Description:
Layout: H1 7-15, H2 18-32, E1 37-38, H3 46-50, E2 58-62, H4 87-99, H5 112-116, E3 119-123, E4 128-129, H6 141-153, E5 160-164, H7 165-169, E6 181-185, H8 202-212
Parallel strand pairs: 2-3, 2-5, 5-6
Antiparallel strand pairs: 1-4
Amino acid sequence: MNNITNWNDFIRLQSQQAYFRQLQDFVAAERASGKVIYPSDDEVFSAFNLTPLDKVRVVLIGQDPYHGEGQAHGLCFSVKPGIKTPPSLVNIYKELVTDIEGFEAPNHGHLVKWAEQGILMLNTVLTVEQGKAHSHAKAGWETFTDNALKLLDAQPKPIVFVLWGGHAIKKAKLVTQEHHQVISGPHPSPLSAYRGFFGCGHFSKINELLAINAGTVIDWQV
């Protein structure tokens, strides 16, 4: 897989494998049965489309897509314009206000600007049934996204992997190359943010690491 240089080739290679064909058949059957599946078919791979492999500087790992109407569009933690900002993202904004000088919490949760700056905003499961969190867990997406993380680990350019919460932290074992950095801590969910997400300083830390690697820092304002 080390000779893969872009996400299109990666996805094409995965699509030739039995697990991925079974996964695609499963998702297609769920949609065909009349169930509402998020995100829409053309947005499932938005994270990869918005952040090319050779432009990835930061990887932010989520779990599965939001399962409410109109929320998910293929980027972890992000929602479509006009949709109420979800609680975890509200807490992310609260931390940004205290961590990044001049940051102002926006009145929306659309984070495409982050993706366009080289933050791969990757859920470990890429589809979900409306109203049923984790309903597509164990369908095969975890194999796909683990393989994506292995490809990212193989990249020669330093990448900052940001792991919030137990589910994401388990992915640290896939980051083996010493030139990458891993930042981990509690999830920004209201259930866990007070256990150390607030005050973690992760956003300024990300920028410090990017600057050390002679990279442009992230403009967090959206």
